[in-house]
Design a protein that fits this description.
CATH topology of the largest domain: TIM Barrel
Largest sheet: 9 strands, mixed
Bound molecules: pyridoxal-5'-phosphate
CATH architecture of the largest domain: Alpha-Beta Barrel
Radius of gyration: 22 Å
Helix content: 25-40%
């Protein structure tokens, strides 16, 4: 794969026909180091967010050895990573997936119902002997206070059924845990205060000792339209809440960041094929790397990279239209760009590393990307070398 200092250097060297994924593995490495330094437990990367070997390599190089996996194909992939410990944290799994995961060495399973517990026991019982090495995590329902993608409606258990399930799991598990997810792209730590309060109630009501606590993912990235709290603020709040929980001092903690580890590590470089009023027709979109911009209203940072912007050029708000014929293929933004942008220009769309690549499909000509390594800094960042929140670049040239 070719390496360029910046997206502008790439465009100066070639005029790519396909959209380009500009990878910044160093950004993933930095994010992983921040989590490993600051979080007092296992940092399990949520594999689904982006499984590019370049990013997995950077995460691994930084020291990540735990992976949150949610499907059998992910497990088959991640099981090839040396010394990796996989945690199957999808609360609803097929019987065959449980069986195969166990055969591949997976011992951590999350669940939110007695049916799932029965399935897990049945599929890990061999020659009449139940597994004695299961790490079972009860997935607790917690409210989504301020996340962009709430996860509380699909999975989770609460109230008396949760206390009953936790007690049952205690009898079977070699290690018992509680897990939750506050929702993806959570903007303030308040969500963790509420969630950990729910954990406290569950432990007290069930009257059991837990060995593990998994606080899930949900940590934010920076986009063009919102200023999340700093990562330090998240971790300080989480530390304070965990301090108050009725758990043993040696309780083993885990977190499962996806977005926060890879979002900054990938840009998308697109060509403008037409400009019409406030709309730019570009060569990727809703069915490609920009699903979140089309369907969830994400406003990624943008900059013009095909020519210098003369000083004093006004900035304008644009919406994007993707390359298919249908009108779902629209990203409303608004995306800020210099008012000179026109047909034939190239734009860098930053911080698309979380879920963009993973979701991109093949509809109507989609799915062909070039790939390069970029050496410069992400357009917006939550991290700097000292771990503080930092604005690396305003994103507007
Ligand atoms: C169980 C679980 N863990 C972790 C994650 C990663 O979340 P995020 O990317 O918001 O950190 C997800 C995302 O859906 C998830 O479902």
């Amino acid at each position: 794969m070719q390496t360029f200092a910046t997206a502008a250097d790439l465009i100066a060297a070639r005029k790519p026909e396909h959209p380009v994924r500009g990878l910044r593995p160093h950004a993933s490495g930095r994010a992983a180091r921040w989590f490993l330094d600051r979080f007092d437990g296992d940092v399990a990367y949520a594999y689904k967010a982006n499984s590019s070997v370049f990013l997995i390599g950077a995460l691994y190089g930084a020291g990540i050895r735990h992976f949150d996996v949610a499907s059998l194909p992910e497990i088959e992939d991640a099981a090839t990573i040396p010394d990796a410990e996989l945690h199957f944290m999808h609360p609803v799994k097929s019987r065959s997936a449980i069986r195969r995961a166990y055969a591949l060495g997976v011992r951590s399973f999350s669940l939110d119902s007695e049916d799932e517990l029965d399935k897990t026991i049945a599929e890990t019982t061999f020659e009449g002997k139940e597994a004695k090495d299961l790490k079972l995590f009860v997935r607790l329902t917690v409210p989504s206070i301020n996340s962009r993608i709430p996860l509380e409606h699909k999975f989770g258990i609460t109230g008396k059924p949760a206390t009953d399930l936790l007690r049952k799991c205690r009898l079977i598990a070699s290690e018992l845990g509680i897990t939750f997810h506050v929702g993806s792209q959570t903007s303030t730590p308040e969500a963790f205060v509420v969630a950990l309060d729910e954990v406290q109630k569950l432990i007290v009501n069930a009257g059991v000792v837990i060995d593990r606590l998994d606080i899930g993912g949900g940590f934010p990235s920076r986009y063009g339209d919102e200023e999340p709290s700093s990562m330090d603020a998240f971790m300080d709040t989480i530390d304070q809440c965990i301090e108050k929980l009725p758990v043993p001092e040696n309780v083993r903690l885990m977190c499962e960041p996806g977005r926060a580890l890879v979002s900054e590590a990938e840009s998308l470089i697109v060509r403008v094929d037409a400009r019409r009023d406030g709309g730019l027709y570009i060569n990727d979109g809703a069915y490609g790397m920009l699903f979140d911009a089309a369907h969830l209203g994400f406003v990624f940072p943008t900059r013009l990279v095909s020519r210098p912007v003369p000083p004093g050029t006004p900035t304008k708000e644009f919406e994007f239209w993707g390359p298919t014929c249908d009108s779902i293929d629209q990203m409303k933004g608004p995306f800020l760009l210099p008012d000179i942008v026109d047909e034939g220009d190239y734009i860098e769309i930053g911080n698309v590393g979380a879920y963009g690549r993973a979701i991109a499909g093949h509809f109507n000509g989609y799915g062909q990307y070039d790939e390069v390594i970029l050496l410069d800094e992400p357009m917006l960042s939550m991290y700097d070398a000292d771990g503080d929140k930092v604005v690396v670049d305003s994103g507007q040239s």
